[in-house]
TrEMBL record:
Protein name per UniProt: Oxidoreductase N-terminal domain-containing protein
InterPro entries: ADH_N_2 (IPR041694), GroES-like_sf (IPR011032), MDR_fam (IPR045010), NAD(P)-bd_dom_sf (IPR036291)
Single GO term (MF): 2-alkenal reductase [NAD(P)H] activity
Organism per entry: Quercus lobata (Valley oak)
Coiled coil: none
Keyword check for Oxidoreductase: yes
Keyword vocabulary terms for this entry: Oxidoreductase
UniProt xrefs under Gene3D superfamilies: Medium-chain alcohol dehydrogenases, catalytic domain, NAD(P)-binding Rossmann-like Domain
Record-linked Pfam families: ADH_N_2
Length: 112
């Protein structure tokens, strides 16, 4: 089975690149697996701020919905993992845009 690709926030474990060192946080395309090798041109270094890393879920949901997907009013949007942090936001963005939303969840307990 092949791992899913997407965007994410990750911590650098090891790097030979001069711009990245162990412990740095980056944002960019990633394969959803425990460890991932990513090419430097695709990464954005997250500079230390007082903003919690959990806030990046909003940025990822926004970019994925508006910049990559960019559906129009009246279109159908399928949200996998609609109960997750990013999926919940994507579902709300879709409703605000006037789309018809269909979501999936991992288990019946997460359906409301």
């Amino acid at each position: 089975m092949q791992a899913l690709s997407g965007h994410g926030v990750a911590r650098v474990l090891d790097s030979k690149h001069p711009n990245y060192k162990e412990g740095d946080f980056v944002c960019g395309p990633a394969v959803w697996e425990e460890y991932n090798l990513v090419e430097e041109p695709n990464l954005t270094k997250i500079h230390h701020t007082d903003v919690q890393l959990s806030y990046y879920t909003g940025i990822l949901a926004y970019a994925g919905f508006y910049e990559i997907c960019s559906p129009k009013k009246g279109e159908y949007v399928f949200v996998s993992s609609a109960f997750g942090a990013i999926g919940q936001l994507v579902g709300q963005f879709a409703k605000l845009t006037g789309c018809y939303v269909v979501g999936s969840a991992e288990s019946q307990e997460k359906v409301f």
